[in-house]
Every structure is written in structure tokens, then in C-alpha cells.
Design goal:
alpha+beta, three-stranded antiparallel β-sheet, 3 helices
Length: 154
């Protein structure tokens, strides 16, 4: 599963805005030495748009994606490199953790309730929940009332 379309579009827009800001700042700073602010801004500001789009495209083409399967949960780049993987038998739950002051994040819990992995990009939660249900992975944090097996390291 990929990051949501809305999130990716916002990231492209922020990249372009950042390049535009750098172009304006560079025009103010270097403008007097290179023909004045208006002359430098006339070419630097339009050049910021393709620079921002190209820069984020280079980053975006190898972005991480969440893969849910019968074997477990993994984060894989578009080029196929596995960043991390949690096997099915080690998963106590998959869901959104809103318990901290930070933004809500997608986490993979162990059977004891310990956070095993966090996902830094926001996937489509509806699709993720359906995939977890399809492959039989538990959605949400593990139950405190349900007896959990001991961790595999013991």
C-alpha cells in the first residue's frame, strides 16, 4: 500500500514551495552581485518549479510502501528493497496509535502490546484494514485481557 494521493500531492507542493523560497532567498542574497534582485528573480523563481518537481520525483520514485500478506507486514521500497519485516506469528495487532502527543501513526504491536514497528507515511487506513482482515491479521492494539504467549526471545 502506498501513501495516500493527497499526502503525495501535498509533498510535491511543499517541495516546490521550498525551492521557490530558496530561489527568492538566493535572489535577495546574491542579487546585488549578479545583476540585481529583479534580474536574478526573473530566472531563479521559474527555475524553482522544475527543480522542486524533479527533486521530489527523484525521492518519490523509491518511496517506501507497506506490504500486507499472509506472511506478515513489511515495508518495501518501489525498487524491491525490504526496509523491515514482521512475521505473522510476532504480530499482536496492526493499527493507529493516537496515544502520544505526536501525530497519529500506524504501528505494528507485538502480542504483549509492545510497539514493534512504526510506519512514517500515512497509508489509506480503509484499504489497510481490509487487507488485514483478508489475511487474518488482527486490527487494532492487542487485548490486555487475552492471554499472550511469551515473546520469542525467551
Amino acid at each position: 500500500m502506498d501513501a495516500t494521493r493527497r499526502s503525495r500531492v501535498a509533498s510535491y507542493a511543499m517541495s516546490v514551495l521550498l525551492c521557490e523560497f530558496v530561489a527568492l532567498l538566493g535572489s535577495v542574497w546574491l542579487g546585488p552581485d549578479l545583476g540585481g534582485f529583479p534580474g536574478m528573480a526573473a530566472w531563479a523563481v521559474p527555475a524553482g518549479v522544475p527543480a522542486g518537481l524533479l527533486g521530489y520525483w527523484l525521492y518519490d520514485r523509491n518511496r517506501a510502501q507497506l506490504r500486507v500478506s499472509a506472511a506478515g507486514v513489511a515495508v518495501v521500497t518501489l525498487r524491491g528493497r525490504v526496509e523491515w519485516e514482521v512475521r505473522r506469528e510476532l504480530i499482536g495487532g496492526v493499527g493507529v496509535d493516537e496515544s502520544t502527543e505526536r501525530m497519529p501513526r500506524l504501528v505494528v504491536w507485538g502480542p504483549t502490546g509492545r510497539v514493534l514497528r512504526q510506519v512514517t507515511f500515512p497509508p489509506d487506513l480503509g484499504r489497510l484494514r481490509r487487507a488485514c482482515e483478508r489475511y487474518g491479521l488482527p486490527w487494532g492494539p492487542p487485548d490486555a485481557d487475552r492471554p499472550a504467549p511469551p515473546p520469542p526471545e525467551l
